[in-house]
């Protein structure tokens, strides 16, 4: 079974962001540095207690480390697209005019 690549990438990134070596991170977590290497190389997911320690140390959520977070911007855009797809051509034109006016007021005329 393939490990969680996102987890591996994010542990590496957070370690670098916090200027920690593998040895330093292992010491902070009270584990052997080979375990961290398994996380970073194989994407092996630690036990829940260790995952929570990582989250606390890096000040991130477990969903972030595991790659489970939802991209809110994509969700919002998808929601708008679903609503617009249900409009008839006349109402779609009205919606477009409303969006143009709102963008002009808020952002100074983004097209």
From TrEMBL:
Q: State whether keyword DNA-binding applies.
A: yes
Query: Which organism is the protein's source?
Result: Treponema succinifaciens (strain ATCC 33096 / DSM 2489 / 6091)
Query: Sorted alphabetically, which keywords does the UniProt record give?
Result: DNA-binding
Please give the InterPro entries that the UniProt record associates with this protein.
Cro/C1-type_HTH, Lambda_DNA-bd_dom_sf
PROSITE patterns (UniProt xref): HTH_CROC1
Question: What is the name attached to this protein's record?
Answer: Helix-turn-helix domain protein
Q: Name one Pfam family in it.
A: HTH_3
Limits of the HTH cro/C1-type domain: 11-65
The protein's GO terms of the molecular function aspect are: DNA binding
């Amino acid at each position: 079974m393939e490990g969680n690549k996102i987890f591996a990438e994010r542990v590496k990134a957070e370690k670098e962001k916090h200027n920690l070596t593998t040895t330093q991170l292992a010491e902070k977590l009270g584990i052997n540095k080979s375990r961290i290497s398994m996380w970073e190389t194989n994407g092996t997911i630690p036990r829940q207690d260790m995952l929570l320690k990582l989250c606390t140390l890096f000040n991130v959520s477990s969903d972030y480390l595991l790659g489970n977070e939802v991209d809110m911007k994509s969700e919002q855009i998808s929601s708008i697209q679903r609503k617009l797809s249900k409009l008839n051509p006349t109402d779609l034109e009205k919606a477009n005019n409303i969006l143009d006016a709102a963008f002009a007021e808020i952002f100074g005329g983004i097209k």
